[in-house]
């Protein structure tokens, strides 16, 4: 028989004390959250009859997770980051807010302060010339009526052909494959980049260790991340997932959504290559972003999530 004690008044009182509810100091919000964490943790332990060995293995796992900086990766892999998007969508719907390009998760690999340029940029540093397929990416940022938004900031980041991101992969140059592009008078942005590869979790890391226990892989389809912002418009965090990837609908982070699939066109025509100033085959992808009007100043800003190199 499963023994349960969490509902006993003395136990509930004990959790209230441990969560600081009997103290004048501290934060009421933090206390309320911690009380709930203690109550739910205790219920899991008694309901699932968590053994001592399982409990301490879990504690040790958290230490490894933090030590390897993978907490942000695990919350993406467990679908919690996607759940937060689904909840935001539901709240928008309840408030009568609709339209625009869908949001999807930021993921753990953004780096603040990428080089800023007007209208166009080359994203890659050329270190994969001859290895990578050149990709020309362009599109417009428009409002809900299709009117161009000039001066919007398109802040984009992507992986290299190995699926690795600069800053986190110290073998890459600073800000490789990370740029901020200001849209021109037609709301247009243009980028020369490379076709990225999908990301895979470090097979030796704690996130993949957890996924292995769940019988899951840790692969993402090839994708490009975006923050799109402009005065008076709702900040958009999203991604384009590349149509030609086997993992398109088998993403360990659940970021692929209808409306966020980029059609990659491969061009194998020497006249076109010469015009584009590239050697041989290249790729093109066009993607427009539609922004909603912001209902508050705060809605124009991205979350305050701690990020690498944030000022
Ligand atoms: C990525 O590139 C990514 O976008 C997410 C969400 C998680 C891990 C790696
Ligand atoms: Fe990514």
Summarize the structure.
The protein is α/β, with parallel strands linked by helices and 311 residues long.
Walk me through the topology.
Elements: H1 9-18, H2 28-47, H3 52-67, H4 71-77, H5 80-94, E1 116-118, E2 120-122, E3 134-142, E4 153-158, E5 178-182, E6 188-194, H6 206-213, E7 223-229, E8 236-242, E9 261-262, E10 265-267, H7 270-276, E11 282-286, E12 289-290
Parallel strand pairs: 1-5, 2-6, 3-11, 3-12, 8-9
Antiparallel strand pairs: 3-6, 4-5, 4-7, 7-8, 10-11
Helix pairs in contact: 4-6
Residues 107, 109, 199, 223, 225 line the site of fe (iii) ion.
Features:
Protocatechuate 3,4-Dioxygenase, subunit A, binds fe (iii) ion, 12 strands, binds 3-methylcatechol, six-stranded mixed sheet, alpha/beta
Q: How would you describe the overall organization of this protein?
A:
The chain is an alpha/beta fold. It has a domain at 98-309: Protocatechuate 3,4-Dioxygenase, subunit A. The chain contains seven helices and twelve strands. The chain has helices at residues 9-18, 28-47, 52-67, 71-77, 80-94, 206-213, 270-276; strands at 116-118, 120-122, 134-142, 153-158, 178-182, 188-194, 223-229, 236-242, 261-262, 265-267, 282-286, 289-290. The strands form two sheets. It has a six-stranded mixed β-sheet, with no helix packed on it. Strands 2, 3, 6, 10, 11 and 12 form a six-stranded mixed β-sheet that branches. It is globular and about 80 Å long. 30% of the residues are buried. The site of 3-methylcatechol has 10 residues, from helix 4. Fe (iii) ion binds at residues 107, 109, 199, 223, 225.
């Amino acid at each position: 028989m499963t023994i349960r004690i969490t509902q006993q008044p003395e136990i509930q009182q004990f959790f209230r004390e441990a969560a600081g509810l009997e103290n004048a100091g501290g934060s009421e919000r933090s206390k309320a959250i911690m009380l709930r964490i203690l109550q739910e943790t205790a219920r899991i332990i008694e309901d699932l009859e968590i053994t001592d060995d399982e409990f301490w293995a879990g504690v040790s796992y958290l230490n490894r997770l933090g030590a390897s900086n993978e907490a942000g990766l695990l919350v993406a892999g467990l679908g919690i980051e996607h759940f937060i998007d689904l909840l935001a969508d539901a709240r928008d719907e309840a408030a009568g807010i609709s339209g625009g390009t869908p949001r999807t998760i930021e993921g753990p690999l953004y780096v603040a302060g990428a080089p800023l340029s007007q209208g166009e940029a080359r994203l890659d540093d050329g270190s994969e010339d001859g290895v990578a397929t050149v990709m020309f990416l362009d599109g417009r940022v428009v409002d809900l009526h299709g009117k161009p938004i000039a001066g919007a900031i398109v802040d984009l980041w992507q992986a290299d052909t190995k699926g690795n991101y600069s800053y986190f992969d110290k073998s890459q140059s600073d800000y490789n494959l990370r740029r901020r592009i200001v849209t021109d008078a037609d709301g247009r942005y243009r980028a020369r980049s490379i076709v990225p590869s999908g990301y895979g979790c470090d097979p030796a890391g704690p996130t993949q260790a957890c996924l292995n226990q769940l019988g899951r892989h840790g692969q993402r389809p090839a994708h490009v991340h975006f923050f799109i912002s402009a005065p008076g418009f709702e900040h958009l965090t999203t991604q384009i997932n590349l149509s030609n990837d086997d993992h398109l609908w088998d993403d360990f982070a659940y970021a692929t959504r209808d409306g966020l699939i980029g059609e990659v066109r491969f061009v194998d025509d020497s006249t076109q290559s010469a015009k584009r100033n590239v050697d041989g085959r290249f790729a093109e992808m066009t993607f427009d972003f539609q922004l909603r009007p912001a209902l508050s100043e705060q809605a124009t800003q991205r979350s305050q999530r701690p990020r690498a190199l944030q000022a």
